Amino acid sequence: MKSLKFLILPLFLIGIFGVSCSSDDDSGQGENVDLIVGTWKITDVWMGGQSVYALIQMTNPCPLQTKFIFENDFSVRVETFVAADSGDGCVPDEVQNGNWSKEGSTYYVSSEGQTAHSEVEFLDNNNFTLMIEFEGESAKVKLTRQ
Questions:
Q1: φ, ψ of residue 108 in degrees (nearest 5)
Q2: Most buried of 14, 102, 130, 136, CB within 10 angstroms?
Q3: Is 28 in contact with 37 (CB distance < 8 Å)?
């Protein structure tokens, strides 16, 4: 838990260099190039086998509102959120754009001249998990279709 305060950075990096997304509903799934096409949000985070999602919500909830949007044209958009200047709630921040591709169960995301990859495990058509590494610790992140 000591690196929990640093967990926000990897959550942010998921959007740029990780994986995510699918379609808006199951009915249109046949029209999409891949299950990842759609809009996703982080719905759980585990470190050391324990969920730390509630703790993140209490300490810095804004990065959890980030939307990861994967399109059929292999583009990806990440809409980030930060704390409002008033300290009351979260407001939209940067929008980051990139491209995604897939090889097997590994997804690649390229943005700003960098490419990263992650293996994704789809739990069903609306949920998937991936592992991230930060500061030598692993975190398992669950994303859910919006």
A1: -120, 135
A2: 14
A3: no
